[in-house]
Amino acid sequence: MELHYDVVVVGAGIAGPILSRNLAKKGYKVLMIDKKAELGSPKRCGEGLGIANFKKYDIPMDKRFINREIYGAAIYSPGGYKIEIRYDRVAGVILERKVFDKMLAYYAARAGADVMAKTEAVGLIRREGRIAGVKARHEGEPLEIFADVIVAADGVESRVARWAGINSFLPPHELDSAYEYEMIIENFEFDPDIIHLYFGNEVAPRGYVWIFPKDEDRANVGIGINGDNPKTAKYYLEKWLKENNIKGTKILEVNVGGVPVGGFLKELVRDNVVVVGDAARQVNPMHGGGMAEAMEAATIASKWIDRALSEENLELLKGYTDEWWAGEGQKLLRILKVRQISEKLSDDELDAAIQVLSGADAERIAAGDYREVFKALIKNPKILLKPKMLRLLKEAL
Amino acid sequence: MKVKILVDREKCYLCGSCVAVCPKEAIITESEEWKFFPERCIGCKFCVLACPVGALVAKEVE
């Protein structure tokens, strides 16, 4: 079967549906395909999203995909020191991704986009040396989808970008290998109104263990570790649960995934192929969250696709690359530098850092008032003598 | 050293971590299938390291 669209979007995670919705609203003929039979499932996500993103990206706060409102975060050092940030107002939510992704696709469809689940891209169509569309397959039936613009929103395992000639190889050190249970937590104290992050070189090398509460006793409990670690993410999560006497006997879901935490694609556009989201490695390399970045990328990319199509000049697509790298991309590079230093901290140094910051007003630090950090440091001058800590502070501030 | 990457299909979630870290596109994950292309493999074993559950092993071949 042969189909014709202005834009074909491969992947219906976060970036794909936002971009499809934005372009459908502008009147373009858009088709979004996804290899999953059920959009949003299986998920590879801790499901935490900051509250500001709903308004910023025009997403309704539909109760059907919001499990729980979150008021802050607690960060634990390996030696047991803790920073707690708590707000009076809702700071974020724990989503139900399998509903959220499907609803985002629904919003795209309602705006006029066509959506086809269980439809897998298998290659590009080339005509006279140009990329003319995507070859796909639905239940074994071959499809030829012709389009002026092809969007690679096909996740960490993206193939579309590579087909177009963009090298999206991710070195294993720049991948977080992640494993997560959605489970009932018994006999373990945790405040279900905030998220909990546990750091330590023995706890989670390079990464952290998270508890993202979905109910008072139910949570996503997961881990991310450096992807070049000889041990597995599953090994470290099981170890942490055991050491904390948390029984894994009420497990509702097992989630597994790789998170790009570096290796950002410099080249986001090649000819008429545009890469967004995890496929472009657009993830915060400190905490591994990628939903907000995917939404931002989709917003910028859809703006430039609109301009390129309306002015009939595909060269304008490169405006997306430039705008991303002038703003959000630069921010992520700075965060990557902080991570590259912080990942080298010993457990003692992690303890010291969190001890210092726990003496400060964490809420003011989170709000960007770094005078609190200096006030705390004056009380703990030893920390300043460590060159790694100084570099970390310099990069972070 | 030429290697063959073997998958334990019972353990594999098709999460795509191995695909992302493969420099040569020697592995792909389709909606229901993990596929290995031995002629493209350079034996770096990045995929084995990156797998969150230890579903992959590298077997040395002549």
Structure description:
Chain B: This is 4Fe-4S dicluster domain-containing protein. Chain B: Keywords: 4Fe-4S, Iron, Iron-sulfur, Metal-binding. Chain B: InterPro entries: 4Fe4S_Fe-S-bd, 4Fe4S_Fe_S_CS, Fe-S_Ferredoxin. Chain B: It comes from Thermococcus paralvinellae. The complex is a heterodimer of chains A (397) and B (62). Chain A is built from 12 helices and 18 strands. Chain A has 397 residues and is an alpha/beta fold. In chain A, the strands form 3 sheets. In chain A, strands 1, 2, 8, 9, 10, 11, 17 and 18 form an 8-stranded mixed β-sheet that branches. In chain A, helix 8 (328-342) runs antiparallel to helix 12 (387-396). The longest helix of chain A has 20 residues, at 291-310. Chain A is globular, with a radius of gyration of 22 Å. By secondary structure, chain B is of the alpha+beta class. Chain B contains 2 helices and 4 strands; from the N terminus they run E-H-E-E-H-E. A two-stranded antiparallel sheet of chain B has the order 1-4. A two-stranded antiparallel ribbon of chain B has the order 2-3. Chain B starts with a strand and ends with a strand.
Radius of gyration of chain B: 10 Å
Number of domains of chain B: 1
Fraction of helical residues of chain A: 25-40%
Q: How would a textbook summarize the main sheet of chain A?
A: 8 strands, mixed
CATH superfamily of the largest domain in chain A: FAD/NAD(P)-binding domain
CATH topology of chain B: Alpha-Beta Plaits
| Secondary-structure arrangement, i.e. CATH architecture of chain B | 2-Layer Sandwich
- Number of helical stretches of at least 4 residues of chain B: 2
Query: Spans of chain B of 5+ residues with little confidence (pLDDT < 50)?
Result: none
Q: So what's the overall shape of chain B?
A: globular
Mean pLDDT of chain B: 95
Main pleated sheet of chain B: 2 strands, antiparallel
**Strand runs of chain B, count:** 4
CATH architecture of the largest domain in chain A: 3-Layer(bba) Sandwich
What's the rounded overall pLDDT mean of chain A? 94
Radius of gyration of chain A: 22 Å
Family (chain A): Belongs to the geranylgeranyl reductase family. DGGGPL reductase subfamily.
Protein name (chain A): Digeranylgeranylglycerophospholipid reductase
Organism (chain A): Thermococcus paralvinellae
GO biological process, one term (chain A): membrane lipid biosynthetic process
